[in-house]
């Protein structure tokens, strides 16, 4: 067995043993097994189980672990489980959770439940959360924790060291303490590593990194993730417009953003919701997939009505009907290659105003070059197959047109969608395929009608 | 301007200014601008520039920054630039680079260049790198650094604190020091935060976390990334089969793995290479995209030859030809939805042996349910459009068959491919579309032939 399968295997074995115990009704045994597991492992098992098993497992879970497990679950399943809990249990489960995670959970609750959960909280927690909820979703503020430890610049390190020892602990994933002035404006950062390695008689100011970059609280979370990736940060301070320290963002939340964005690109291109639950119930899943299929039905009917324009040609030449799917298909694949490239380029921050014209030009050139190569190939293939050179030339010509359009549209459509603030990862594929289908059919059937019908 | 566009805007402005300076031949000015930028920003600008601009920029870059810039570049562009450098400059640029990054670069070099780069290195660097290169690509070993700081368990913290102060610095992204026994086996970990907050008279053993998980050196890097994500680690020790400490993996390398895998899923589904260079040269890009288009041409010809079987029907009924793209199109979209879900489930480690049968069953059920809904809709649509109830019933029947198959195939194909160790993200989409095209055409044209031809 390849070593990389071991971890998955361990989960599989656990699942198998859990299922066995569940199946034979040994609920106490299951409860004990769950009690010994880390919250993140239980979350994984819940994600990997069909609805009925989940339901039973959820009942058997230690209420003390509920909060941590919820934190580790995907959005879809998390929502589902929370909606079944009483507001009091939600409040209890989420007490002590990181502010950003707590806000994230509350944000997704229905209004009535949300208010009741807030009421069930301690006043301190409520204040903390209401503050966090005031930042819009998908901004730095929404993934920020408020558990920062701050230092003053003109203190010596030995004082800091004594203070930390009195404090007794530091928040999770603390790698840097922030140095602030009297108005809480960030002056720099001191890494824990430097606190340990520098001379204790030095001052904070002398060892701090004054170039420490701060993140504006309203910056988009994708932007934040790009900064973390580019600079290999573990944490970064978040500031308001005056440079006042509001909190910090840690790499674990950034990893979640990266994961979400990646899921979004991949699932979005297939017309699925980012966080669709792999083992969710059938009816709910069916409903959620209908929007995309509805749009596609219209696109397919549009393509069919293009063919309908050429009914006369199709009536006379069955061969045209037989071959007519080839041109749209090749255009679709070529266009999708370009689309994927451009969407990723946008996501990585490589594509912007300054170079989008060049990019469209390049993809247009590739489309034409591709068109030449493949029209030649399909010309030869069809000529040999149908023993009809004219037919080969027709389909080749249509292919050249469609692949050129595909290159242009594959780059142009996502850039255009982005300009209108429509997410290219979501809408791009469907718009593109419609274009390449319609143009491909038009080109082939049009050329055929022009040259074959007299 | 939305705040999330600010960072992108800054890069765009810089690019614009750089381009302006380049265009007017102010190379000294450009060199100065580059000199003041961080390596990661220069890398971003290189990634975002067309080939010619890149070439000029690359000449103007400070050789001292070359190594850091290379580290931050995408694989495709990095390879391209390194192949233009002399072995000596590569050796110079990569001196002092993290072992894993250095090994990563060397791994991608052509053999001749690779050997000459190794020869140009200091013997110490060479040893370090040859060790790193002995671990297979895509394993924990290949993303591991060897710069660990280790402690003995029976020493008091004040001794450690004195040692660290003498040492003067710690490797980047160090959050935990590893506690090892005399044979270098990992006993636990001490977080820097604990060193700062605990009583200095305590022993290492008393404050260390004995439950610290170690990563086997042969574990797959995707697996490693899943562990980091699940447990919110910043770093983790890597051990050999005897539990001996070999090095450590840090979150920045894990983020690269997550990014690569995400790109792989998204780009792979469109038939693109993971790290395809958005602004790469036209000819190279065209060549790289041909494999997928070749495969698709065969798939399209296969679909055409299915239609060819029903030439007689198509000859007699042009309407059948007009409508025949609808069924494959809907099946393709429905199948792709399932495919994306399952591929993501596999990537997250949620789908395994124990639940794959359930998953296929669920997707089959969704496919049938979808099939019922959409066959009814298309039945009505076609009946109204073509004023032909029988035709509507035919296309509806074919739709039901194809969408049921699409659900089954969308889940079954990636699971089957995975079983044969073929990457489902790469091959899945093409195989699936071929299946839904062929079955869709077969079902519709077959039913039409059966019921309309006498």
Automatic annotation (TrEMBL), chains A, B:
Gene encoding the protein: mgtE
Compartmental location: Cell membrane; Membrane
Species per Swiss-Prot/TrEMBL record: Shewanella salipaludis
Classification via Pfam families: CBS, MgtE, MgtE_N
All residue ranges annotated as the CBS domain in the record: 208-266
Keywords, ordered alphabetically: CBS domain, Cell membrane, Magnesium, Membrane, Metal-binding, Transmembrane, Transmembrane helix, Transport
Function: Acts as a magnesium transporter.
PROSITE patterns registered for this protein in UniProt: CBS
Record has Magnesium as a keyword: yes
Cellular-component GO terms for this entry: plasma membrane
Record protein name field: Magnesium transporter MgtE
Membrane topology note: Multi-pass membrane protein
Transmembrane region(s): 291-310, 316-343, 364-385, 391-417, 429-453
């Amino acid at each position: 067995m390849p070593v990389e399968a071991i971890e998955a295997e361990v989960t599989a074995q656990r699942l198998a043993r859990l299922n066995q115990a569940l199946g034979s009704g040994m609920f106490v045994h299951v409860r004990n097994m769950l009690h010994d597991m880390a919250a993140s492992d239980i979350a994984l098992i819940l994600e990997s189980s069909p609805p009925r098993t989940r339901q039973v497992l959820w009942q058997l879970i230690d209420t003390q672990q509920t909060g941590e497990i919820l934190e580790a679950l995907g959005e879809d399943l998390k929502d589902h489980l929370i909606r079944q809990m009483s507001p009091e249990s939600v409040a209890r489960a989420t007490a002590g959770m990181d502010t950003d995670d707590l806000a994230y959970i509350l944000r997704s609750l229905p209004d009535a439940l949300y208010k009741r959960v807030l009421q069930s909280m301690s006043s301190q927690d409520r204040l903390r959360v209401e503050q966090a909820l005031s930042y819009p979703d998908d901004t730095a503020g929404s993934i920020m924790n408020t558990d920062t430890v701050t230092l003053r610049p003109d203190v010596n390190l030995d004082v800091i060291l004594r203070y930390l020892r009195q404090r007794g602990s530091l928040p999770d994933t603390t790698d840097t303490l922030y140095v602030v002035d009297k108005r809480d404006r960030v002056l720099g950062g001191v890494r824990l590593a430097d606190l340990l390695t520098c001379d204790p008689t030095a001052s904070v100011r002398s060892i701090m990194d004054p170039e420490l970059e701060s993140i504006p609280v309203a910056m988009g979370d994708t932007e934040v993730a790009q900064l973390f990736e580019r600079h290999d940060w573990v944490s970064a301070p978040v500031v308001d417009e005056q440079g006042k320290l509001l909190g910090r963002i840690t790499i674990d939340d950034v990893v979640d953003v990266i994961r979400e964005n990646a899921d979004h690109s991949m699932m979005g291109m297939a017309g699925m919701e980012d966080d669709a639950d792999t083992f969710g119930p059938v009816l709910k899943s069916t409903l959620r997939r209908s929007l995309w299929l509805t749009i596609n039905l219209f696109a397919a009917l549009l393509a069919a009505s293009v063919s309908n324009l050429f009914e006369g040609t199709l009536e006379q030449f069955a061969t045209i009907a037989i071959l007519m799917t080839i041109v749209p298909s090749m255009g679709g694949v070529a266009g999708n290659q370009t689309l994927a490239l451009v969407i990723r380029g946008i996501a990585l921050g490589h594509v912007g105003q300054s170079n989008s014209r060049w990019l469209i030009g390049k993809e247009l050139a590739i489309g034409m070059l591709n068109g030449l190569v493949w029209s030649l190939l399909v010309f030869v293939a069809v000529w040999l197959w149908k023993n009809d050179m004219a037919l080969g030339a027709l389909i080749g010509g249509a292919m050249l047109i469609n692949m050129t359009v595909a290159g242009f549209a594959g780059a142009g459509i996502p850039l255009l969608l982005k300009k209108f603030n429509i997410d290219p990862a979501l809408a791009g594929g469907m718009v593109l395929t419609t274009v390449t289908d319609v143009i491909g059919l038009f080109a082939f059937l049009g050329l055929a009608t022009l040259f074959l019908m007299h």
